[in-house]
Amino acid sequence: MVAAVRTPIGKGKTNGALHGVLPADLLAHSLRELITRTGIDPVLVDDVIAGAVTQVGDQAVNIARNALLGAGFPESVPGTTVDRQCGSSQQAISFAAQGVLAGAYDIVIAAGVESMSRVPMGSSVLPGSDPFGLAFAERYADSLVPQGISAELIAAKWGFSRAQLDEFSAASHEKAARATKEGRFEAELAPIAGLSTDEIIRPGTTVDTLAGLKPAFYYEAYAARFPQIDWAITPGNWSPLSDGSAAVMITSGETARKLGLSPLARIHTTTVAGSDPLYMLTGVIPATEKVLARAGLTLADIDLFEVNEAFAPVVLAWAHDVGADLSKTNVNGGAIATGHPLGASGARLTTTLVNALEQRGGHYGLQTMCEGGGMANATIIERL
């Protein structure tokens, strides 16, 4: 990785600072910033691989290609859009790295975007459509639940109380607010539309303020079906709707030397894992174990972790089962505070992780994130 950048994350609502920016333009901004920071001729870019989850409306028709052309790249540069749910741009990074290793690319950009204010989550599922199919529904008749219910099931299975979830969430806001105040995000940010810092972070958030929020996913039918649930998930302990983009430039060491580019980090190992579709969000546990085994590393070798805070119990269950140190996890706050623009979050986490490793003098960083349908990507990067 020779450059990594992201936009500030805006509220994914009509009154959010980035609502007026079309998603293709939002992604184009990060792509253009990569070229500015590296100084390379964009004609050298072999491909742009971008993640976007809700590929409909303003995010339809291969947003990667539309954005790169909007960014002023030559018409000879191709682009493709991938969907691995919340891990889409982390998967884009994996595909990019694999392409470089295979010799298919010399320089490739992995990126992601989501404008949840303009393209609401779930809007790609048309009325009367069935994206699962009859065979899936027959096999997983008991597993077709919203992610919020999966999060509730995780909290119940691992025994996390509402207070524990709110404590974790308040700490995320505190860390993100402190990182913003101390300028720790500045190197990774490309301000846009008058927004220069993440819009969603709420300084001063406490457990007491979060305690006043009502459960977000309570339904009588689910309460009867899952009596073990205590209904602890609220808008305060899961990631808010968000708008944003992020992009990472990836090349080989030989090409970097030839162009005079200074590497930020090496993509050491990547993997992806599947998990139970009912619990859906626990794939971060086997993915972490799998990527460490592939890398020949142990948990003790990892200096910093970035685990996407889709819901507070996801990170807490992950830390419990893999034995990770939460003091090394999401050290600048996570998605509960900064936001989770679905297709952009994988590249956003990478951008934040590589900068945090630089600031703290760390060597290895591990990133993982849960994904809809029961999957998770995991990536280990090595600071150079």
UniProtKB/TrEMBL annotation:
Keywords annotated in UniProt: Acyltransferase, Transferase
Example of a GO MF term: acyltransferase activity
Keyword Transferase belongs to the record: yes
Pfam families tied to this protein: Thiolase_C, Thiolase_N
Enzyme class, broadest EC rank: transferase
Enzyme Commission code: 2.3.1.-
Domain Thiolase N-terminal: 2-252
Entry-linked InterPro entries: Thiolase, Thiolase-like, Thiolase_C, Thiolase_CS, Thiolase_N
Gene3D superfamilies: 3.40.47.10
Homology family: Belongs to the thiolase-like superfamily. Thiolase family.
The protein, known as: Thiolase family protein
Lineage: Bacteria, Bacillati, Actinomycetota, Actinomycetes, Mycobacteriales
